[in-house]
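Record type: monomer structure entry
Structure origin: computed from sequence
Chain ID: A
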Amino acid sequence: MLSRLPYRVQIPLGLSLAVVVAALLVTAVAAQIFARTARADTLATVDRAAQLLSAQSLPLLAADDTWRVFALLRNTVALIPGATTGQARVAVLDSEGRVFASSAPQLMPTARPWLGQTIDGHALPGASEARQRQRIERAEGGIALLEPIRSEDGQVLGFTYIEVDAPVFAANWAALTEPALIGVGLAAFLLLPAGWWIGQRMTAPVLKVAQVIERIGRVEPSELRRQLPRTQDPELGRIGEAVERLISELQVRQQAERRALSAERMAAVGRITAAVAHEINNPLGGLLTATQTLRVHGASEETRRRALDLLQRGLHQIQTTVAALLPQARVEDRPLEIEDFTDVVTLVQPDLARCQVALTTATEVDSALRAPSAALRQVMLNMLLNGISAAGAGGAVHAHLHADADRFSFSVAHAGKALSHVALEAIVTAESGDDPRGVGLWVCREIATQYGGGFDVDHQHQQGTRLVFWIPNRESHEDAPAD
């Protein structure tokens, strides 16, 4: 039960219990000592009474004066403990061991042989054997004292015989109870408050340390250090030092976590910035090429019209991309058109010429296109640029656009190095934003996921790599489930 109580209660209560138990033990030991002292005092009183009776009865025995011996016993028997209650008896015996006179004539009649007899189950020595004082200890606790009465020339004229029953030596526990209770009460009254006060002072530092530990992680470490108790106790000092080290380690860990979180945020910002720059730079490069074409061949009406349409659609794509970065913005986009695919092919012409890559295209449109134009222009441009880069100098790239009533798909195939599904996942999930290929494919995967479609490697393609992007051919893709 004590172990279930709080520590701040256990110590004061334990000290208080120790005080009470100590008081009871002291009282019990004192009672035992008192009982032994009382027995010793009783035996000393009996010895003195025997000496007194022997000295005073010597002339009376010599004069054979029985009545005066009776008077002597009647006057001195009260000195012996227990005589007034009939628990002690005194007798003067003659030289033969017979009763000469006694304080209890009914129990010890005159002239009755006494020494050498068995009295109440106790054997007494004979008169010839009792030449020195003898104290006979009885099993029940009583005693019998036999002392010879000698004349001046050393002859034994008689004996002094005293019997004291066992109840005389028993301690008076009833008389001891009241002072013992008073002593215990005084000890409890004085020592219990002192023990409780000392226990509270002892547990106060421990309680403060426990409160500091409870506040770790919720209060600033500097404030926790100020709240730690300062004590001279070596054990509590070690506990306080351990808690202070824990607080310091926690502070260092929190600082490291804040730095790691800041670095992670900066990395995320860098990744997003690289992705946005990549998605805007791609159409911007094509728009600059269209502007240069318009400047050189602007005299032709057909060239000017096509260049202006390309500029309009490209700028609209950039506008839509930037608007998509705003969390609260609602992007209004037009459906994809075949001209958008033509624009994308036109935008990659400088890269085709620089890498000396041949591009072939194919379109199969069996239904109206209802997919968003800006997002799909991003996907097609990214996939073509990645295909051109992967095909290498002198390579070939084939782009295929297919649409039916249920699905829109776009694929890019090249005969360059084969790309596995694992390699594609590594590129898509790359943390660095320095690789345009990785950023572009990551954007393709995100758009496919957003619109409930897919983006993966075609495992059935035999030579090189064929990447396939598809989404449902619907006007609204906000709630479209992913296949």
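Annotation 1: The chain is about 55% helix and 15% strand.
Annotation 2: Residues 431-438, 477-483 have pLDDT under 50 and may be disordered.
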